[in-house]
Amino acid sequence: MRVASYNINGVNTRLPVLIRWLTEAQPDIVALQELKCTDEVFPAATIAELGYAAIWHGQSRWNGVAILSRVGEPIETRRALPDDPDPSQSRYIEAAVCGLIIGNLYAPNGNPWPGPKFDYKLAWLDRLSAHAADLLASGLPTMLIGDFNVIPTDMDVYKPERWKKDALFAPQAKAAFAKLVGQGWTDALRDRHPDERIYTFWPYWRQSFERDAGIRIDHALLSAPLAARLKKAGVDRDPRGWERTSDHAPTWVELAP
Fold this sequence. Notes:
By secondary structure, the protein is an alpha+beta fold. 23% of the residues lie in helices and 25% in strands.
């Protein structure tokens, strides 16, 4: 089974890109972030024509998350984190899909740092950590996947010195991510590529993708039952080079039955 994550950066604007990628890659379960559309205009019919059932949690112009599945209907178990510091923002959706619990998230960016947006980022990550602990305690095969907006280490960024003043690379953000993983989650990409610089996002400017000047901010965290089934994990780099594409590339994990 292949579970993928894709910050699509506008699901309707990038719909041709999404259709092409779903058709070519054929992932079994997909977590989408940054839909940038209300619930009413989410392209459910087009996605259904490709063989995917979907649930979504939209928001006008910003944020938005969805879970797609071609291996059974996703049964929503939660939208928004418990005690979300700003429930008006559509940043989390969770579902039971084909025997898994999938928590799809789009964490706050937090810039400019320091400031109220960064404070909100830390508060949101704190609530994520609390909910993640409960998910682990349940013993269910669980995956937290999506755009965490955190660069965990120097290995996850092309030139660390250029990101020192960015909220994605702030010490407090990195500490929050480390605390989350330290609960007992497996960072799938890093587990499968322990010594490799592997990126999931390249800014649009200065030919960042062509120069491979990227960062890793899209992650898949696996609970112990899923970590035992982890076969492969990677990044589909090709879609980042397509026309009118997202600045993220899809990430994926492959699980044994």
